[in-house]
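Hey,

The postdoc asked me to send both predictions to you directly instead of through the lab channel. I've kept everything plain text so nothing gets mangled by the mail client. Protein one:
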Amino acid sequence: MTIHKSVLLKESIEALNLKEGMIVVDATLGGGGHSREILKIIGDSSLPAACLSGRQGRQGKLIAFDADALAIEKFQASIKKEDKKNVILVNANFRNLEKELEKLGIEKVDAILADIGYSSDQLEGTERGISFQLDSPLDMRFDQNQELTARKIVNEYSEEELERVLREFGEEKFARNIVRGILKYREKKSIKNTKELAEIVSAHVPGKYRRGKIHPATKTFQAIRIEVNRELESLEIFVPSALGALRSGGRLAIISFHSLEDRIVKEKFRENARGCICPKDFPVCLCQKTAKVKIITKRPLTSGATELAENPRARSAKLRVCEVV
């Protein structure tokens, strides 16, 4: 059972321009809300494959990725038996999209969705240690098979490395003070859980920030989580891979939750939407560069008042969509 509420669900599904029979990738399965909606549209699972031919009326296929094996397991258990024939579940990070599609023998797909945020199941689960709201072991890994954990970063990274992480991935202006607090604390004992880390951060920022609307440990936890899972690096790899996997007319929709992610998506879309780069005074084009995509959302779509009232976590979500030409 999932407690997750999918963000920008209606907007993202509509933006993908889905039709029956399509092959669609949900690159970040999470709680599975987007995937369930995709399944409703792309094919009639009641029809046997032998009755279907061509694009019209064929069975659609959903390929859902997640590095978190627990998310895969929960989704598999939650969907109807008749829908399972339309689903391929891949326990892998979305950065491996190209390689995993190649393994499946799939050259091109019709649409790709990626919701870069964490699901509520992951945020509120005690086994991951992602949230400072619960006292959990410092872990933060999506992929439980990888070696790097939040605990290793907090206890073993040098002062310079920790400052880099907090400044680069958390945009934390009190990074130096927080890191010094971490170093001083770990001289006595290792930092093992989220409560310890949150208290160290709170003790090393000015008083007015401790009393603010946003918890003072928010940026530090974000930064460490991004470092653990190589999230920005994965996004940098994923976007061009996704565009390369789409057939002409196929759409890529990405939901991001903070400025660092949104900046990467925006820049990658613009880079691929750019055509000729020759100087304006050239009589003819010499660069031979043509646009690979057209941007569907000139400005990112955001949640409306109704969704924000029902799901406050949607407040920072931004949806950008492009279409392969």
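Protein two:
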Amino acid sequence: MIPFGKRYEVLDGELFVTPAPGWAHQEVLARLFSFIDPYVKQYGLGWTLWSPADLEFSGHRLQPDLFVVPDMGTGKPRTWQDVKTLLLSVEASSPTTARADRLKKRPIYQKTAVPEYWIVDLDSRLVERWRPDDERPEVIAEVLEWQPKPAIPPLRIPLAEVFGSETD
């Protein structure tokens, strides 16, 4: 029996056991979802989803916190195995997940050419944006812009609204 309150992921053959996401983690992801999902729907980009999800890329099983599956013109995927790539992957990072998010997951997303990987740092109240060829992240503290296709206007996400007030 798997102990209650733990999350398990295997990355490059290494088992990562982390606490279940806390309230702040889930709240920030819910706020991000409320910005991303309407935009994805408005422009027919695909589907915005969250973990748990059994995604596998290049032999690695991943559980991104929040992600966008692109519409590849073949209709909605019916199984996780039908998902071959992502348009966006988001991890809400904490001290217990930072190592896996930055050192294990990031290279996998970059190698599989996920256009953007965001590490949302709850403590620092900022977002690291990684793209496939980046050696260092773009660090964003004010407004996060996402433009997955040049022909559509960018989504502008005010991070103060995502993180909420210090007392939230």
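Summary for protein two, as requested: The mean pLDDT is 87.

Thanks,
C.
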